[in-house]
Amino acid sequence: MRSMTGFGRGSAQVKSIQIVAEVKTVNHKFHDISLKIPSSYQFLETDIREMILGSVTRGKVDVFLKDLSPARTKTVSVNEELLAEYVKSAHKAAKDLKLKSELSIESLLKMPDVLMVNEPERPEAEQKKAVSQALEEALKALEKMRQSEGNRLAKDLLEKAKEISQVIQFIRQRHKASLAEKVKAFKEKVSEFLPEPLLDQIRLSTEEGVLLQRHDIAEELTRLESHLEALHDSAKEKGTVGRKLDFLIQEMNRETNTIGSKASDAKLAQSVIRMKELLEQMREQIQNIE
């Protein structure tokens, strides 16, 4: 089980290319990848996304690439063909308009696109290799952090699940005693109005059955224990389990609400409240699990 929150950093150098990669993840319902990379590395966007998808399957992912390579030596060249066209056009205009032509090299070099600044391109294969190595290192660091946080969350979830199990056992025992008390109180109430010889035993048994059925929570408790067992198994699984755990907590909340609606005993009601508190704490933690 892994947390959706984490951070990883990696660096690599391939010949003159030096790259630093940082990957940050936070919890999110869906999978959202945001890339912040230099324009000269845009051609690697698809490759970077594939690497992220192979490691992170859920959550918001921010990827940062920094190019720390030494500055490349720039050169300046003259577009002589274009310059000749400017000169030709200038002479023609001067002749047609009968103007004196006063061209200077300074004015000509200021014309658009005459001067060209050349920057040597980095070999794409070297760029790709450097980015791949740096990103792989960052993803390993990210995985380690997310796994560590996931283990901590799993431990806390299992501790809360253990307390819920104890609450269920208390509710089961208290419920039996509470039902016995309700049946006894029901019989005493009836006997106040009707003497024993006149009691309709069949009707009385029916009413007792209705009373027991109305307050029976055995099925809900059994389902709760089943969900707890599934939660234990899921918490020990590797890979993506967040949605599964979230579903289990929803089902446990549903059973707990039903128990609360049937519980007329004060001690049972207090136990239900405690169980709902624990489930809410677990639900909040599960939102951060991949």
What does this structure look like?
The protein is an alpha+beta fold. It has 3 domains: 6-71 and 122-145, Ribosomal Protein S5, domain 2 (2-Layer Sandwich); 75-118, no CATH class; 147-286. It has helices at 45-53, 80-96, 105-109, 124-193, 201-215, 218-235, 242-262, 266-286, and strands at 6-14, 17-26, 31-36, 59-67, 75-78, 115-118. The strands form 2 sheets. Strands 1-2-4-3 form a 4-stranded mixed sheet. Strands 5-6 form a two-stranded antiparallel ribbon. A hairpin with a 2-residue loop joins strand 1 (6-14) and strand 2 (17-26). The longest helix is centred in the middle third of the chain and has 70 residues, at 124-193. The chain starts with 5 loop residues before the first strand and ends with a helix.
- Number of helices in the DSSP assignment: 8
End-to-end CA span? 7 Å
Low-confidence segments, ≥5 residues, pLDDT <50?
Answer: none
Total count of domains: 3
Note the quaternary state here. Answer: single chain
Relevant terms:
elongated; alpha+beta; 61% helix; two-stranded antiparallel ribbon; 6 strands; Ribosomal Protein S5, domain 2; 290 residues; 8 helices; four-stranded mixed sheet
Could you give a quick summary of the protein structure above?
By secondary structure, this protein is α+β, with helices and mostly antiparallel strands. It has eight helices and six strands.
